[in-house]
Each structure stands twice: as structure tokens, then as C-alpha cells.
Amino acid sequence: MPANALDISGLTVRHGDVLAVDGIDLRIGRGETVALLGPNGAGKSSTVSAVLGLLHPAAGTVRVLDRAPADAVRAGCVGAMLQHGGLPSEARVGEVLHLVRRSYPDPWPLEDLVATTGIGGLHARPAEALSGGQRQRVVLALALAGQPPLLLLDEPTSAMDVEGRRAFWTTMRELAARGTTVVFATHHLEEADAVADRVVVLAGGRVVADGSSAEVRSAVSGRTVRLSVTEDADLTALPGVLSAERQAGTAVLTTTDPEATLRVLLDRGIPLADLEVRGASLEDAVLTLTTGAAR
Ligand SMILES: Nc1ncnc2c1ncn2[C@@H]1O[C@H](COP(=O)(O)OP(=O)(O)OP(=O)(O)O)[C@@H](O)[C@H]1O
């Protein structure tokens, strides 16, 4: 059995004149749950498309479970949810599910699949009559129908409500616990933080960070200090402070030395009302890492 679910070397993807992916190397081991993060246009979807064999790289190689992408897909090793994944509009959900399950040698048992993806009650519904979130759940069911060892998900929860998202990530955690490799692109950084054991940050078609969420967050120095302040509070020349903003009576300070900053605030007689000190969030880290890196 191959050790890696994905082996990407020097992957370069062009769409006409646009260099979407600029020579990335990425190895993802079996059973990992990996979030692909980065701003619009960073190259996440293009990478996913190359892994699915939907486009030809301009350079580099992609191996999926030690096979060429199209072979891996044909062998039923990959389940995918794409941003623009279509469903035949007039076909009923039950029919599509039946057809897709039938094409796999060892399909996911129907009742369990329906319960897991929360699509009970949608069987007789034509695809065109589904809400955005329902459609995403049906597409998930289709992606899981063959019990693939690798799941590739491009913004899978973008149309789901809070409950749908929670259920979705619970399913993903269960799949990961069973050894499924899950690779997902998202703009919901709190989901990546909670679910992924590794995050890969892309910007301008390159990998700008790769590690656990804690590692990526720690690459960004600075803590955020928030406190309620009056208009005349002097926030100038505070030690350690990289940036200071006021937002409707709240001061937001980014500082490399919260203790020194707070000591001087106290010396100036500024009360530490509603004080909150926190480390960089994944969102702060991704913003810092990708600002200026995108083309
Ligand atoms: N079919 C296409 N034709 C021309 N340019 C494209 C095409 N698809 C993507 N691009 C360009 O390639 C670059 C990378 O796009 P890609 O969709 O891979 O980024 P992304 O990180 O998935 O972005 P998003 O978060 O907005 O989905 C962008 O500059 C985009 O405009």
C-alpha cells in the first residue's frame, strides 16, 4: 500500500496566460486531514483540479495513491466535491445516488450513506429543486458512494447552515478516524483550525506555509490586546505595539510584548476595562502570510 495519498512535485498549472500554480511540492500521507488555505485566486482549486486529472499541468507530476490522477479516479480511489460540481437538473436524487453507487464494486451501504450525509427525505426531489446546502449534501453523498480512501473537497460547506456544517465536519472526523485521507480547500479558517491536522497555505500559486495550525499561527509574531478606552486615552508610543486601532470605543493593539504594553497603559492611568489578550488566530496568520505574496 502506498505511504502517500498524494505526491505532488513541481506542479505548475496555467490557464492561458495566467500562472495559477507555480511549481508546488506537496506530500500528503494516508490518513491525514489537510486544509488548503489562501485568498481568492491563490491556486487551491487549480491544484485540486490537477489532482483529479481534470487539467494537464504545464509542468511537474501528480501521483494519487501511487497512480496517475485519471487512473486513481477511474479506480474509484478518489471522492470529490467541487465548487461547481453539477447534478443533472431533472434527475431525482434517489436515481442519481442509485446510478453512482452501482458503478462501484463496494458501495457505501445506502441507508448508512443517506443517514451520514443527512439527505433522508430528498430521494424524490429533482436536483434542480434542492437548496444550496441540500445540493452540497447530495454531492457529498455521491463523493462518498464508493467509500474512497481519498476525499478532495473544494469549499464543501460554503452553502451549508451552521447545523449542516457541524454535521459535515463530524462526518469528516469519523472518516478520518477510519483512515480516509481528507484534503479540503476552505475560506472558513475556524473550521480548518478545528478539523485539520495540517494546514497548507497557498498564495500566488505557491506554498507559503505548511504545518499544524499551531505551527502556522506561531509563525506570526504578535498578540492582540483589546480593551475599552475613552476617546482621550493616549495609545501612542506603546512598547511592543506594531499596530493600534480604535473601533467604537475599543482599542485593538497588536503587540510583541503584551506585558510591557499593559504596564505602560496602567502607568498612564488608562483602566484595563474589558481586557482581552489573545494569540494570533489562524485567520491573522493566514492574512499576514498571504498579504503581499499574492500576485
Ligand atoms: N478557467 C480559467 N481560466 C482562466 N484563469 C483561470 C481559470 N481558472 C482559474 N483561473 C485563474 O487562476 C488563478 C488561480 O485560481 P484558482 O481558482 O485555482 O484559485 P483559488 O485559490 O481556488 O481561488 P478561490 O478561493 O477564489 O476559489 C486565478 O488567478 C484565477 O483567476
UniProtKB/TrEMBL annotation:
One of its GO terms (molecular function) is ATP binding. Residues 6-229 form the ABC transporter domain. Pfam families: ABC_tran. It is found in: Cell membrane. GO terms for biological process: response to antibiotic. It is a peripheral membrane protein. Keywords: Antibiotic resistance, ATP-binding, Nucleotide-binding, Transport. Its main location: membrane. GO terms for cellular component: plasma membrane. PANTHER family: ABC TRANSPORTER ATP-BINDING PROTEIN. This is ABC-2 type transport system ATP-binding protein.
